[in-house]
Amino acid sequence: QVQLVESGGGLVQPGGSLRLSCVASGSIFSPYVMGWYRQAPGEQRDLVATITSGLNRNYADSVKGRFTISRDNAKNMVYLQMNSLKVEDTAVYYCNLKSVGDYWGKGTLVTVSS
C-alpha cells in the first residue's frame, strides 16, 4: 500500500502564491508518475499537473505559466508552486501517485479570496 499526505493549503488573496507538498510512503515501485488534481465544489476532479520519474511535466491549460510541479525522487515528494492565484483556483487539491496502482491523498483545501 501507498500513503500520500498533502500539506500547504490555506487562504490566499488573488494574485498571491502558495506551495503545496505531498509525501509518499509505503510500497512504491519505480517508475511512477506523481501529480496534482483539484476538485471545486459541485465539480468533477480535474488534472492540474503531472510529473514522471524522468521529470517530464504536463499541465492543464488553465494553470500553464502560473503553476510549477516538481519532485524529489530521493524523498518521494512532489510539490506544486502556485503563483498568480485566481479565485477560480479555489478547490481541494489532491496528490496522486500512479505506479502498479493508483493512489490518492485526502486533499488539502486552497481558498483564493479577497
Brief summary:
With 114 residues, the protein is mainly beta.
Overview of this protein structure:
This protein has 114 residues and is mainly β. Helix content is 0%, strand content 55%. The protein contains no helices and 11 strands. The strands form 2 sheets. Strands 2, 4, 5, 6, 9, 10 and 11 form a 7-stranded mixed sheet that branches. β5 and β6 form a beta hairpin. The radius of gyration is 13 Å and the shape is globular. The termini are far apart.
User: How much of the sequence is in beta strands?
Assistant: over 45%
The number of distinct β-strands equals: 11
Major β-sheet profile: 7 strands, mixed
Can you count the helices? 0
Helix content: under 10%
What is the 3D form?
globular
Mean pLDDT: 96
Q: Which structural traits does this protein have?
A:
single chain, 114 residues, mainly beta, seven-stranded mixed β-sheet, four-stranded antiparallel β-sheet, 11 strands, 0% helix
Write the layout of secondary structure elements.
Elements: E1 2-7, E2 10-12, E3 18-26, E4 33-39, E5 45-51, E6 57-59, E7 67-72, E8 77-82, E9 91-98, E10 102-104, E11 108-112
Parallel strand pairs: 2-11
Antiparallel strand pairs: 1-3, 3-8, 4-5, 4-9, 5-6, 7-8, 9-10, 9-11
